Amino acid sequence: MENLLKQVNFPEDIKNMDEKALEKLANEIRRFLVRQVSKTGGHLASNLGIVELTLALHYCFDLPNDKIIWDVGHQSYVHKILTGRKKKFCKLRQLNGLSGFPKPNESKYDTFAAGHSSTSISAALGIAKARDLKGENNHIIAVIGDGAMTGGLAYEALNNAAKENTNLIVILNDNEMSISSNVGAMSRYLTHLRTDSAYIHAKEYFEDFFEKMPIVGKSANFLFEKIRSGAKYLLLPGMLFEEMGFHYIGPIDGHDLEELKEVFQNVKNMRGPLLVHVKTKKGKGYPYAEQAPWKYHGIGKFDVKTGQTADQNAKEDYSAVFGKKLIKLAEKNEKILALTAAMASGTGLLEFQKKFPTRFCDVAIAEQHGVTFSAGLASQGMIPVFAVYSTFLQRAYDQIVHDVCLQKLPVVFAVDRAGIVGADGETHQGVFDIAYLSHIPNMVLLSPKNKWELEDMLEFAITLKKPVALRYPRGIASEEFQDSRTPIVYGKSEVIQKGSKIAILTEGHMLSFAMEAAEKLKEENITPFVVNMRFLKPLDTQILNQVADCCEYIVTVEDGLRQGGFGSKVLEYYSDEQIYTPKVINMGFPDKYIEQGKPEELYHLYGLDGEGIYQKIKQKVGLKGVKNE
Predict the structure, then answer these.
(1) Which of the 8 DSSP states describes residue 609?
(2) Which parts of 526-575 are beta strand (E)?
(3) What is the DSSP letter of 580?
(4) By the 8 A CB rule, do 152 and 130 touch?
(5) Stretch 492-507: mean pLDDT
(6) Phi first, then psi: what are they for 427, rounded to 5°?
(7) Contact status, residue 254 vs residue 173, Cβ threshold 8 Å
(8) Neighbours of 376 (CB within 10 A)
(9) Among residues 81, 53, 177, 73, which one has the least CA distance to residue 123?
């Protein structure tokens, strides 16, 4: 390990370092990050860009008495290195290992859990208000990126902060990136600030000029206040934040430790809400990440020397299959538009963007707006396809309910990363979408078993003229079951295997696990009835009646929570129809937030892989040879 970094475990270890030592430490931290993340995968570019900023914050403030609230949280690796977790990076984002996000139950230095965007100012303001009510006097610092500033929640918090008028420091980490490149008016505004070289000098000059100008009488005082205000509007572009009630400072160089320290020492003595605009470079210090920061935003294992990822030549993932099929459909139908919330790359839409630039819309990190924007398009006869991660679509629940489904508007939701996603853990596991989508009136919910069924379902969805959500997992698109490519018929399932005594009803890619269990059951002289449900809403009631007539046990398997999942809907149907003959066994994730880990580890841990399904059935049915739990 690097020499200086060996000596640093907690914030107090850097407080006596001089400028030269801190700069050396910054370089050592970057080398450490590149080396460690290359082995585990993780969010690299954002952390490389925030090294000096994090060092300056820990140098100037007194943690954990002073509190840093990180937005999104994937830029907190340097913070973790400086707060006693350096040796745990060998298990970053692994099962029972170090989280890639702030977690208060992991360290007293983590004030607030984060995983989604635009939350830090709201949380920090709440913490500051609580501080005031308790009569305390510590500093509360929210660190938010310019990508997160495209989210409406950030502006709701800024507006409320002005009303509360309490001591609050907001650090705007401006690196011109979210996951994809930033878009929209706020991005252009911040670009103007970054490129206005005269800004800081103009601000200093006019503040000094008007402070020294003699004032004669109340009328003159009123007049000069108006002149001063007008001059600031004309010459000080930071006035947007000033008018929102914040004292604006910046932009400053986020890689200049001396300047950062000076600014932070000064703002500690200032009152009221402050916004410090810091300009940083995402991926700084690692050439491959500097050249392609979006690629190294969240990356798997890679070779440090070449920058090549281990899965560079891997087969197509579901996102790529979706993106290619959407292009083919759009070539035939000019009403199709593709939308994303700052995730063009992650959702497989980069090629669509190039081919149909006027029919591609990046709404920035604004899922609520994206849904209602899609509803507006659909109301005028367009066919919007909104590609969004399952975990991020949660943020727009109200808009799905009121703006899309209530009005029966034909918006297609391409719900990427549905089910277990793995290393990002609790905040990113897409295990809620079946529950939160399937109970909304007028919504149609589908789940494909493989790459070809995804293509067919997407083609079906754009012609349905109803709100449709198509959920599919992260990772390599399955090429299993390619011989069973039957047409998609509204509300109808697909029988994979006929059998008796036991029926296994499964959704999406969980079919492969179900078939593994079915093969093991054949060794017990039981051939189960296996059904690929396809539609999670509406359910195929005909097949539910059929399996109830021929089977004693019905097992439902889903890549989501058991509570409120499609298995619950099966139980509701049997209850409503007073069909009490079969015993129903629902299999899914329990009522908890699912931790980080490799997907295969988590499916095994929760008994949802082939072996787990087999053992659960044996236990419930009473077959011999059940493993002890």
Answers:
(1) S
(2) 529-532, 535-537, 551-561
(3) -
(4) no
(5) 96
(6) -75, -10
(7) yes
(8) 14
(9) 73
Neighbour order of strands in the sheet with 529-532: 494-497, 529-532, 501-506, 551-561, 583-589
pTM exceeds 0.85 for this model: yes
**Could you tell me which residues are beta bridge partners of residue 67?**
140
Residues of 43-63 as b/e, b for ≥16 C-beta within 10 angstroms?
bbbbbbbbbbbbbbbbbbbeb
Residue 629 is predicted with a pLDDT of: 38
Q: Which two tokens stand for residue 512?
A: 């492969």
Sign of CA dihedral 297, 93, 145, 35: negative
Burial of 34 (0-12, 13-18, 19+ CB in 10 A): buried
For residue range 56-114, list pLDDT tens digits in order: 999 999 999 999 999 988 899 999 999 999 999 999 999 999 999 999 999 999 999 99
Which residues are annotated as catalytic?
282, 367, 395
Structure tokens at 107: 């360290």
Task: List Cα–Cα distances, 31 to 97, 317, 349, 597, in angstroms.
Answer: 21, 31, 33, 25
Tokens of 427: 């905040």
Amino acid at position 254, single letter: G
CB 353 within 8 A of CB 360: yes
Considering only CA atoms, which of 420, 459, 463 is closest in space to residue 602?
A: 420
